[in-house]
Amino acid sequence: MDVKTYRARSMQEALQLVRQDLGSHAAVLHTRELRGGLLQRLLGVRQIEVTASATVHVPSRFAEPLEAAAPAGGAGGEVCGVRAPVQRRETAPIPPADQQSFRDQFRDDLRCQLDGLQSMVEDLCQRRAPATGPDLPASLFHLFTDLIDAEVSEELAREMIDRLRHGAAPGDLEDAVLLKARLVRMIEAELQVTGPLRVTPGHRRLVALVGPTGVGKTTTIAKLAGNFHLRERRRVGLITVDTYRIAAVEQLRTYADIIDLPMEVVATPREMRRAVERLANLDLILMDTAGRSPRDELKIQELRSLLAEAGADEVHLVLSSVNSLENLKKTVRQFADVGVTAIVVTKLDEATGLGTLLPLLRSCRLPLSYVTHGQNVPDDIAAADRRKLTRSILGIDATS
Ligand SMILES: Nc1nc2c(ncn2[C@@H]2O[C@H](COP(=O)(O)OP(=O)(O)OP(=O)(O)O)[C@@H](O)[C@H]2O)c(=O)[nH]1
Ligand SMILES: [Mg+2]
After folding, report:
1. What pLDDT is recorded for position 285?
2. Which ligand is nearest to the CA of 222?
3. What pLDDT digit, counting tens, does each position of 104-120 carry?
4. Nearest ligand to the C-alpha atom of residue 215
5. Distance in Å, CA 280 to ligand 1 centroid
6. Domain boundaries, the chain
7. Ligand 1 site: residues with CB under 6 angstroms?
8. How many A from CA of 45 to the centre of ligand 1?
């Protein structure tokens, strides 16, 4: 059986190869667009594969629409010069002169359809990947791959490279340093931060930390308490509403004892009111909460009423940087009801790439307050800093 495969950058080129090799009567058996490697896709390089045969006679891939369009009884058409056999039907014979005009009509119709299809596909490719067209300069290509390596979503990476490209004068595209500096500024602008908690002596501020289980809420509370009490000499107290597990209460109590802080354990809204009253003369009350599965609607509502009863000034949602973007987005959505005002990101020391923060913050429109980068209390915490985070995302040495 004589079946051959041809590859080219366009359908027209592929069919030309078929014609040259197998002659104008070859049958097109199958066509497809190959996905290609990442590099080819990024550069917008297309590859079309056509399978054809000079001897096999089966209905061509192009035959069906032609048959429908053609008058009954056609013995076969020519597809851009390549024969496309059609199934025979029992119909009245067509005079030879008419057969010729049918074939001509066939060919013209098919050419129109193919041209239309090709420009539609090209148009779609351009719309999907405007920044990564065939002539993407190497400097931008490297920045694009840097963003992908940092786990920035492909959509946002494309958008940033596109903005860089369109904002650049022709000479700028050769200047890798300049482009990188612009990308740094672009990322910094994406990262909204709150700065450290504003704790003023004599003005009690109540800050609650909420989030899924095991993300580091209690450890972060201990770090904040340690810093504000031991280093900034503020009067700090702790409340825990995590009464589901004795170990959780004991965990916070251990920190309260070490740092020497008052601590209240609260199980009901009524107890909450009294606890807040007892700590009323402090500068900062930090409230620890039980890890909530974002799927547990009832517990989220319970948390909401406790926070409302406490009159929390700020609610920080604690998220682990180890989680996937989809997971993080889902968590943010499911905690939306408790009135989150900022995001704390933990476990930066364990993250493989911090680029997920960019699409996350863009989608939830919340600022970052703190980041934590280890288990040491109270050291491994810092107020979120745009410049440092951007450098971490792009893997730029902190000293450069
Ligand atoms: N590597 C690393 N580990 C951390 C960090 N923050 C917290 N952890 C660890 O994460 C684990 C869970 O921390 P917890 O503070 O108990 O987490 P939690 O959110 O209070 O957990 P639940 O109360 O069970 O919901 C502990 O082993 C912490 O030491 C961090 O920034 N980096
Ligand atoms: Mg805890």
Report:
1. 98
2. 1
3. 777 777 776 777 676 66
4. 1
5. 28
6. 3-128, 135-190, 205-394
7. 213-219, 242, 248, 291, 346-347, 349-350, 372-375, 380
8. 46
Q: How far is CA 364 from the centre of its chain?
A: 13
What's the first-to-final CA gap in the chain, in angstroms? 65
pLDDT at 134 over 60: no
Atom from ligand 1 closest to the CA of residue 373: 31
Entry pTM: 0.70
SS (H, E, C) the chain: CCEEEEEECCHHHHHHHHHHHHCCCCEEEEEEEECCCHHHHHCCCCEEEEEEECCCCCCCCCHHHHHHHCCCCCCCEEECCEEECCCCCCCCCCCHHHHHHHHHHHHHHHHHHHHHHHHHHHHHHHHHCHHHCCCCCHHHHHHHHHHHHCCCCHHHHHHHHHHHHHCCCHHHHHCHHHHHHHHHHHHHHHCCECCCCCCCCCCCEEEEEECCCCCCHHHHHHHHHHHHHHHCCCCEEEEECCCCCHHHHHHHHHHHHHHCCCEEECCCHHHHHHHHHHCCCCCEEEEECCCCCCCCHHHHHHHHHHHHHHCCCEEEEEEECCCCHHHHHHHHHHCHHHCCCEEEEECHHHCCCCCCHHHHHHHHCCCEEEEECCCCCCCCEEECCHHHHHHHHHCCCCCC
Atom 14 of ligand 1, residue of closest alpha carbon: 216
User: Between 1.20.1250.20, 1.10.3720.10, 3.40.50.300, 3.40.50.2300, what CATH number should domain 205-394 receive?
Assistant: 3.40.50.300
- Provide the token pair at 103: 């074939």
The pLDDT mean for the chain works out to 83
Residue nearest to atom 6 of ligand 1 (CA): 216
Poorest-pLDDT segment among 30-39, 170-179, 211-220, 343-352 = 30-39
Q: What are the tokens at 326? A: 């989809």
